[in-house]
Design brief:
The chain has twelve helices and 14 strands. It has about 350 residues and is of the alpha+beta class. It folds into three domains: about 160 residues, no CATH class; about 90 residues, Roll (Pdz3 Domain), CATH 2.30.42.10; about 80 residues, PDZ domain (Pdz3 Domain), CATH 2.30.42.10. Helix 1 packs antiparallel against helix 10, helix 8 crosses helix 10 and helix 9 runs antiparallel to helix 10. The longest helix is centred in the last third of the chain and has 32 residues.
Length: about 350
């Protein structure tokens, strides 16, 4: 059966999503941070701590669902209508204009381009974990240390501490901290690291967990077997249709070909998702499986969709195609796939160079 391969890919995606929904996945709530002034989100009236309930009448419960619904509307060049509830419990409706985004937006950080970001809770600057062999361990920092100042400047939140460290790659800083009943100072030289094309400082520490903040920021998505199956099938169908629409828009020039990724980007994302946990990695595998299924159904000779195209022409003609026609079709298919692979590699290399 010609479509057995693509169908197997789509069924695998459904199974992976079903498995995750049945076992439960912990996700961040769709809470937004304060947008920079002048951005589309700021002009729409988004406030720090707003939690998104709906995107254009579609309910969302996690930050990932919010990003997905946002991406679909940006691809359609539609304004984004949000129903949000602020930290005072008030419900508001906000409309975010997307006209400023160009065809390359989906290949970039389109969320940040609109001025949107995840809400940053105000954790106290208490060190939770110290990485083995890190700069912090060598300097004598230990779990439970409360950092009160950096280079004499008082700090009150973990974000202020993180910003001070990130801004000082290979530059010594002095941390004033409280350990038990003692106040002491430690000199630390953050190690230089590259993030999004910028050089930042890192010392190898993590914030101390706060159960109350975690409960406020996180939500568990867990469904019964039947509901999970319906949700998994719907998500697989939605992703497949969106992929086909994006391919069609790239063909007519409405979307950038920069959105095509190759093996380098896929390997990078696989590594990132694996570091985030098994749930994120399985979601990534489901997405790759859907992409392969959709790709194989394209009407390109040598792919499964190409064979379906041959069958269609045979029905129209009332008989099998000639060997010459089949040969030309194979050559065209190989050429198109080679062009697609070259474009994917070019985009991968361009992303690596540009950061």
């Amino acid at each position: 059966m010609v479509v057995a391969g693509p169908v197997a890919n789509l069924l695998l995606a459904i199974f992976l999503y079903w498995f995750l929904f049945v076992n439960g996945v912990n996700e961040m709530r769709p809470m937004l941070g304060a947008p920079p002034s002048g951005t589309a989100a700021a002009l729409a009236g988004i406030e720090d701590g707003d939690e998104v309930r709906r995107v254009s009448a579609t309910p969302v419960t996690t930050l990932q669902e919010f990003r997905w619904q946002l991406m679909k509307r940006i691809a359609d060049h539609q304004p984004v209508q949000l129903e949000v509830v602020n930290q005072r419990g008030e419900i508001h409706f906000r409309t975010i204009a997307t006209e400023s985004l160009d065809a390359d937006a989906l290949d970039a950080d389109f969320v940040r381009m609109l001025g949107l970001s995840a809400f940053q809770p105000k954790f106290r600057p208490i060190i939770g974990a110290v990485a083995t062999g890190s700069v912090a361990e060598a300097a004598g920092l230990v779990s439970g240390d409360l950092v009160k100042a950096v280079d004499g400047k008082p700090i009150g939140t973990w974000m202020q501490l993180a910003d001070a460290i990130r801004a000082s790659p290979e530059k010594p800083i002095v941390l004033a901290l409280v350990r038990g009943d003692m106040v002491r100072e430690l000199r630390v030289v953050p190690k230089a690291a590259t993030e999004s094309g910028k050089t930042i400082g890192r010392i190898g520490i993590g914030v101390q967990d706060d159960p109350e903040i975690r409960a406020r920021m996180m939500v568990e998505v867990r469904l019964g077997p039947l509901d999970a199956l319906l949700r998994a099938a719907d998500q697989t169908w939605d992703t497949s249709v969106f992929s086909l629409r994006m391919i069609g828009r790239m063909l007519v020039g409405e979307q950038s070909w920069k959105n095509i990724s190759g093996p380098v980007t896929i390997a990078d994302y696989a590594g990132q998702s694996a570091r985030l946990g098994i749930g994120h990695f399985l979601k990534f595998l489901a997405l790759i499986s859907i992409s392969l299924g959709v790709l194989n159904l394209l009407p390109i000779p040598i792919l499964d969709g190409g064979h379906l195209l041959y069958y269609f022409f045979e029905v129209i003609k009332g008989g099998p195609l000639s060997e010459r026609a089949m040969e030309v079709g194979q050559q065209i298919g190989i050429g198109l796939l080679a062009l697609l692979m070259a474009l994917a590699f070019f985009n991968d290399i361009n992303r690596l160079i540009s950061g």
